[in-house]
Structure formats: structure tokens, C-alpha cells
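Fold this: Ribosome-recycling factor
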Amino acid sequence: MTIADTRKNAEHKMQQSIEAFKNSLTKVRTGRANPALLDTVHVDYYGSMLPLSQVANLSLLDSRTIGVAPWEKGMGAKIEKAIRESDLGLNPASQGDLIRVPMPPMTEERRRELTKVVKGEGESAKVAIRNLRRDANEALKKLLKDKEVSEDDERRAQDDIQKLTDRMITEVDKLVASKEQDIMAV
């Protein structure tokens, strides 16, 4: 393994950590409706549990309402039950073939709780990135120990890994700040 391989590997894994963090942020509810909020809901479809998006069409009816249109007529009640029993705190209402899922307005206290959750998720992402930096630096030290690179090259590579880490952590901070602003906007 070379210095370039080590750096590329670290950058790839750090990018994956940021993608995982972005994915976890989509699950944090803001005041606005977002069909991605229902991604975690699974429905009993003839004995197997399927994601809601595989048995119904999800759409935004307005800024505070998600529309769920089941693909089969008999699925409406099961979908309603699955949404109600999910830990999202939503109360769907059936309107003919369409199920409306209104987003309850968030209280100031709930908004503050969610910003704490977002900050915690951000810290977890930063820890993951720092762990990847540590792993990359250990790989570089091993290359130096095995006399495959010079001390100068190893030092430059560690500085490069540190700059990469700083850039990724800055990106996480920006994502956290953006999500907090989203949550606190009334």
C-alpha cells in the first residue's frame, strides 16, 4: 500500500461517513413535511414487511401535509396503521383513496430538543472522521516502519490527511448549522 492509496482510502471512508450523516439528518423532522420522513415506515404486504415507498406513492400536498396514495385499494388501512404505530408521532387521515399525513406544528421546546439531537449526530460523525484519520496515520507509520517511505514523505502525508480531516469536519459543521436553521425556522 502506498501513501496515495492510504489517502484515497481515508478520503473515501470519510466521504461515506458524511453521506451516512446526511442520511441520518433526513430522519430528523423539521416543521415542514418531507416524504423522506416516511422512509423508515414498513407495511405488512401479504406477509412480508416492505418500505412504504414500495406499496404507495408518496407526495407533498402542501408544506405541512404528505399524501400517501396506495397502489392497491385494500392497503389503505394497513398503511394508516403502520404510520400511526411508527415512532414518528404522526396521525394519518384517510380521504377516499388518499391518505393525508399532516405534520403537527412543533413547539419551541421540541425544536430545541431536535437541535440537540442534530448536534449529537454531528459529533458522532466527527468522531468517525477522526477515527479514520487515526487509522490512516497508523497506516502511514507502518509504511515508515517498514522503510517503504521516507520520514519527510510520511510527515507530508500526515499533514495532508489532517487537512482532509479538517475539510470534512468543516463540512459536517455546515450541515449541522444548516439543519439547525431549518429546525428553528417557524
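The helical segments are 3-26, 76-85, 108-145, 151-184. The beta strands are 42-45, 48-51, 56-62, 65-70, 93-95, 98-102.
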